[in-house]
Amino acid sequence: MPDVLPLSRFLLPVDDSEPSRRGVSCAGCLAAALGARVEEICLLHVVQGHYLSQHMENVDFRVEEVLQSEAMRQVREHRLAEAVAPVLAQAEQELRRLGVQGMVHRRVEAGAPPDQIARVALDGGYSTIVMGRSWGSLAWETLLGDFTLSLLHRPHAATLYMAGQEVLENERCLLPRVLVPLDGSPHSEAALREAAALASASPRRVEEIVLLRVIDPARFEKQPAGKAEEEAREIVARGCRLLAAAAIPEAKVATAVRSGAPAEIILETAAQERSTLILMGRRGRSAWRDLVMGGVSTEVLQRCQEPTIAIVSAASPS
């Protein structure tokens, strides 16, 4: 499948929850700001298996015939008509209210939500997944399968936007102040290119892009004095050159080099800069490795509730 233009094809998982409504608001504000760049928005509802199991006791069937039975067909149709269709219709109505002009279509799948969302994103070549997120303990969500966290560890090439709490309070809060932590890797460069695409497509909405390089003392304690700072400033300078090549005005770009634990510094900087969007590279590590070893992006996701956070993929999965 050829590379997809970033921020061009949106996959928007929806249900009747508050995080889903935040995701719809986030997608609507983002797509309206990007205008014609957004070719398509797919509203996806995943019917989970537990819904059908609740109705099994009312169905007279043999196990091998259940999925093909008339009773099961009626259960599915009732579910779609009474519960799913109104959710999809309301989501599309909200997108139009927020100013989305392009194509919006609806899709229903059955199964485990993280698996189905990742499959549709990969098979459909979607550039962007937008959804809300809930907050709880890291161990609980990682081990029991929080949908948004689980998606970070599925094989897809889409950037995952996770709407913060500010989205419902202020529909314009997504784009003005963007924070991009950099570490010199292709992953962080992909996040920077996403920021450049946003600023190019919606120059009036993006007010400032802050490039942040965090020097982790634990990693550089055996390095010669000044080497870490020199490397950090070169990483930030390369980021500035990339934005300049994308015709982003210099006045909109700020830089910072700070020392400390990466997640802590990112959180502090986001608060100080009143960041509305944090763009971070996606490394594709396993959920268990993130839980045990401490993934920076996972920690930021768990502790930073107000801004929207986007995890950007550097390349298509193999």
The oligomeric state of the chains shown is single chain
State the share of residues found in helices, binned by percent.
40-55%
Rounded mean pLDDT score: 81
Whole-number tally of structural domains: 1
Principal-axis shape equals elongated
- Give the percentage of residues in beta strands: 15-25%
Major beta sheet, specifics? 10 strands, mixed
CATH class identity: Alpha Beta
Named at the architecture level, the CATH assignment is 3-Layer(aba) Sandwich
What structural class do you assign from the helix and strand content? Answer: alpha/beta
- Biggest sheet strand order reads 3-2-1-4-5-10-9-6-7-8
How much is the radius of gyration in Å?
21 Å
Distance between the termini: 11 Å
- Count of helical segments? 13
- Secondary structure tally: strands: 10
| CATH topology category name | Rossmann fold
Low-confidence stretches: 51-64, 136-145, 285-294
Return the string of H and E elements.
Answer: EHEHHEHEHHEHEHEHHEHEHHE
Structural write-up:
The chain has 318 residues and is α/β, with parallel strands linked by helices. The chain has 13 helices and ten strands. The chain has one domain (9-313): Rossmann fold. 46% of the residues lie in helices and 20% in strands. The protein has a ten-stranded mixed β-sheet, with helices on both faces. Helix 1 links the parallel strand 1 and strand 2. It is elongated. Residues 51-64, 136-145 and 285-294 have low confidence and may be disordered.
List the helices and strands and how they pair.
Blueprint: E1 9-13, H1 18-34, E2 40-47, H2 49-53, H3 70-97, E3 103-110, H4 113-124, E4 128-132, H5 138-144, H6 147-151, E5 159-163, H7 166-169, E6 177-182, H8 186-201, E7 208-215, H9 217-220, H10 227-245, E8 253-259, H11 262-273, E9 277-282, H12 287-294, H13 296-303, E10 308-313
Parallel strand pairs: 1-2, 1-4, 2-3, 4-5, 6-7, 6-9, 7-8, 9-10
Antiparallel strand pairs: 5-10
